[in-house]
Amino acid sequence: INTRWQILFDRSSYSGKTLVPAGEFINVKLAWKLMRQLQDPLMLCTGFLPPWCADLAGSCHFLFPLECREFFTSCTAFGISRALHSMQQRVQGSSVSDRPTEVRIGRIQREKIRVSRARVLPSAIRALELYASHRSMLEVEYYGEAGTGLGPTLEFYTLVSQELQSAKLGLWRDSWGTSAQGGDADMDTPAPKAADPNDGLGQAPVQTGYIRGFHHICVARCTNCTTITFPRCETHTCMLTKRMSDSVAQCHRCEVQFEGGGTCEHCKTEGSLSLEWWMLSDEEAAYLHAAFPSGQSAIDHILLQCPECKSVNFPGTEQSLIINRGGQMTSMSGRVMHEQDYRAVTRHVTHSCSNLPLTKVPVRLQCEECAIVARLVGGTPEAEEGTDEVSTAGESDRYVQAPFGLFPAPIMESTSAPVLQHFRFLGRLIGKALLDQRNLDLPLSPAIFKFMVGQELTFQDLGTVDPQLYKTLIKMKDLVDERKANSSADLKLDGCALEDLCLDLTMPGYSHLELVPGGKDIPVTGDNLEEYIDLVARTTLVDGVEKQFSAFQAGFDEVFPMRHLQVYSPQELELHIRGDIEDWDVDTLRASIKPDHGFRDTSMPIIWLMNTMASMDRLQRRLFMRFVTGSPTLPRGGLKRLNPRLTVVRKEAEAPLKPDDYLPSVMTCANYLKLPEYTTEGTLKKQLITAMSEGQ
Description:
Layout: H1 28-38, H2 41-46, H3 51-59, H4 66-76, H5 80-94, E1 110-115, H6 120-131, E2 137-142, H7 150-163, H8 197-200, E3 209-211, E4 214-222, E5 228-229, E6 232-233, E7 238-239, E8 242-245, E9 248-250, E10 257-259, E11 273-281, H9 282-290, E12 298-305, E13 312-313, E14 323-325, E15 328-330, E16 336-337, H10 339-343, E17 359-366, H11 367-376, E18 383-385, H12 387-390, H13 416-436, H14 446-452, H15 462-465, H16 467-485, E19 492-493, E20 496-497, E21 506-507, E22 510-514, H17 529-543, H18 546-557, H19 570-578, H20 586-592, E23 593-596, H21 604-614, H22 618-629, E24 646-651, E25 665-667, E26 672-676, H23 681-694
Parallel strand pairs: 1-2, 23-24, 24-26
Antiparallel strand pairs: 3-18, 4-5, 4-11, 6-7, 8-9, 9-10, 12-13, 12-17, 14-15, 15-16, 19-20, 21-22, 25-26
Helix pairs in contact: 1-4, 4-5, 9-11, 13-18, 14-19, 22-23
């Protein structure tokens, strides 16, 4: 009744309201019986739950409370280790004993990845290609930053969610950019201002950061004798890192240049110097000098280089570099070494590199040049991340404007491959977020959640995707009925004759997409109006998005099968993915905040903080949550369900500064707010808002 009643009212405006409260359908006895089955460890480990459990939970999920269905999903969809972990957490939570559990079972493994903040979307795509199918929990850290754990991981999901809303990806229906997509937007109507996602909390402009410990340096290699030299600027005691062209490198501080194609000083071969670009770490530079065989001025060596990130490794032992003997990597003691021996210990500039074999590069190293590298590496600038994005940053300034939620745009054959790749990634991302219980700040259309829980999209769902188009098609359906009742009636839409609208059989807003072959040359008339309505609705909800949905489901199924989501309603699934929205009052905050280390419930800064938080509007609440936790959203259940609990501690001032001179600071990995003991509520509010706005 609650999910299907709209089909009885074809002409009514779409409404997601339920007719009967969901609690009226819950069967307490069935829920108790299901929970008893799920608490049997043997059944969980063998996967032999009675068939009725999955059948009833999937087809009649309304019979069970949400908590019961959540436990069912964690026990049946996420793997044995997570099932046992969930069961143990439940037993511990319901235990009245103060005695801690002696044996821990079902421990969830964690995998740590490192990503580039300026290349967060490509890094995320590559990382989930490698780790989406793993049952371990993903943790993220950023190059050049020390933080790791919960906070950076939540921020990672937030940043990726924002990047997926970029207009340049062409994934979503865009009420701002239909004219740019070849649509028939009214040119006299000013385009609305492009809005950042997340209610104004969009990503800051792309800025170039630096990757600690790595240097993108120019290297000259002779194609004849393989001798390596390191072009440098003696004035600024650094190696050359500025790439002017494929054959020219320059100092980052002056106009000292080095051009390839010159004569090798060692073998005297003309035009044999070729420029290469290496990603050299501080550790490798130091090892190259320290491990150079004593008493020798030059050696033949084989270096190993990642074919993706260009990071280099100079293989050897603790005592000496290896020697190239007949194409084999040989230690000074005569032992033959192999590339796979060094693959696991090679330090890459990015963890998104796949486990491809390292490229063997024969080189002739000189003792003098190796000593110069060790001396100059300290003055050489660290490698910049995101340099490719700087030139195109303007393209990322606009986000899709979708006031009714993100829904796939009808696909074009010319752009289908990259679009489908991104939707496959989106499936992996949402699946991994559900598995690890991470929120995504991604305002998807209710129709997408309906698809995810296995419900078929109907004509009424067009009202949630594009309400204006839906209303127009409803009016056109009235014209069809009018024509059926009176074949000679003049068809007018909002007082305008149908023929005067100059419609043809192309997709509204996407004139390059024909609804039928040759549709741009077929006008819409009273005779084919009904066909036009059906084609528009079907293209919007089915044919035009079928490939995107298939790619999305394929990516999701790599994490766990999407069929397990059928135990939820679309609204419940949205809460699990996007998190909760709640208004804060003092009573809610008092139950959710834990004062500690210098503060008590009665401390004035705590009281002022709760007053300030209670007065925040929705945008400020999102800013506060992102500042404290790394994510602007709340978990399902609101602030009180935050884990770890929001803890506020006193931040000590160091003389001669006073508490009012400090801004609040945070530890996002522990939801820890360090609050100075301000003298007035006004000062606290001012400093907190400054920190929230500037400290993202």
